[in-house]
Every structure is written in structure tokens, then in C-alpha cells.
Amino acid sequence: MKDLPYEIIGARFGLACPHEAVAYGPQALRQAGLLEALCELGVEVEDGGDVFAPQIKEPPAHPKLNNFQETVLFGESLSSRVKSSWKAGKRPVVLGGDHSISMATVGATSEYIREQHGEDAEIGLLWVDAHADLNTAATSPSGNIHGLPVAALLGLADEKLCQIAGPRIGKIKPENVAYIGLRDLDPAEKDRLKELNITAFSMKEIDQLGMNEVCSRAFQTVSDGTYGFVMSYDLDVCDPALAPGVGTPVRGGLTYREAHLVMELVAEQENLLTFDFVELNPSLDSGDASCELAQALLLSAFGKTIL
Ligand SMILES: [Mn+2]
Description:
With 307 residues, this protein is of the alpha/beta class. It has helices at residues 25-31, 34-41, 68-87, 102-117, 149-153, 159-162, 187-195, 203-209, 211-223, 256-268, 289-301, and strands at residues 6-12, 45-52, 91-95, 124-128, 177-182, 199-202, 229-234, 272-278.
């Protein structure tokens, strides 16, 4: 994958979280000069434009989940966009948008790898986030679908969410998932994490082991027996003092260096398929602090090094 050119796709969607303005994340990053900075870095990259939220007059309501129909329809168009990017010989990197978009991005990449390598081909999933995003309609306290994407990718959420990128239920196997940065889980999510025996490095393990060791253990989990892995990076994994511009801030997050080290190490992994970056909300930012951090983190993920 390393030799494929990148294609940046903006996911202009914020209906699956409490603050819709998260849909302006990709625009803020473009205005901050992300594409220009990537070209300066020598990255082969093109701007694939944005995917927009559907306009629906009277969508059928879901009894528990907010904006269900809009989220499913947006996910379906984003997933076709991601698949067509792969098929055109590019490496799609998606900028969110709220975290519901990863049902489409990760699901589409999982489907593409199966098409290429056969039915048994699995991919790993590195989920870098303060939250586990493992709720279902039955357990979600808020009804916001950005808290469900991992459950959907594992095949545990509503059928329509599980099938956003294709009919197969369970795009990712629990043994191929690793979390980094967890610190705010609902009781049902904690139970599910244990039942499924998912590898999870919370802030406690990061404090105890250090980020370098956490990353190498996590890479092992997502690489073992897979055709490569994808990373999904939620900006709220960073401490809110650094990244206030997120919808669901939780204190006690990654330091500036920890946040960068994950990106720097991910960029070195030969089996990284692609990644997405979500939950930057410019309307909640303090000045441009979060947007500037987001851009710097992205540059690290695309291979910028200190030396
Ligand atoms: Mn998240």
C-alpha cells in the first residue's frame, strides 16, 4: 500500500453526535492549509472533495437512535466513495465529521481487502479514542450514533448500521481490535469489552507502560493474522486542554507528545492500510488550537518526522 497515492476525502457529517458543526472539520483543515502542507512534505496526495449529508424531508424515526436514516444514507454514500478510491488505485484518508463515519470507512476498506484477497481476509482496527464507541441502541444513554461504530463494525448493532458498507455482518473480528486512550466507558461497554476479550489500553496502561510499549503491543494485536490494519483517530483522545474543539471532551487524555507518538509510530508500520481522523469541531474550538493540533497530528500520520 505504501506506494499508492493518498486521496483526502472530507466527510461533512455531524448528525450522529450532539454538535452538528463537527461537519465543518474537513473545511477547517483545508482552510488551515493541510493539503499544501502535505505537498510540502513531499506526500503524493490529491483532494478528493467532500461527501455531504443527505437531505431527507421526513425520515422515518428510529425508536432509540437520533437521525438514524440520515446516518445510514450518509454512511452508504461515503462507503461507496471509499471503495471507488481504493479501486482507482488510491489510498483514501477520510476526515470527519463525527465518529459514525468510521462505520463506512473501516467497513469499506474491510470489504475491499476481502475482494482483493478472498473471503478469509481480515483487517485489524486500531481505535484511538477516549471512548469505546461500543454501544448499541439498547445500551446507548444518548441515542447518538457516534457512540456505536465499533459495535456496528463487530456486527452487534442494528442490522442497517452493520450493513452500511455491504451486507456482511461483522466487518471486523473482536480479536483484531485494539484500543488506545480509553477513559470514559458506559457500564454496558465495559461488560462488552470483557465478554469479547478485546485488547484495550486505557490511560492507566499508557501511564504504566508508556506510549511506545502500548503502541507496539497494539500493533501486534491488529497485525496478527490480518492483511493490514486501519487506524481510526478520534481527536477527543487528546487532553481537552490541548484539544477543546471536540463534542465529548474527557479530562486526563493524551499529552501533546503521546498524541504525536501514536501517529509517528503508525506512519512507520508497513501494514497500515489507511486511517481516518474525526470529531474536530471548529465551532467549539478555543481560537484555532484544536485545528492546529489536528493538522500537526495529521502531518505526523502522513510521515512527518522530527529528524
Ligand atoms: Mn469516538
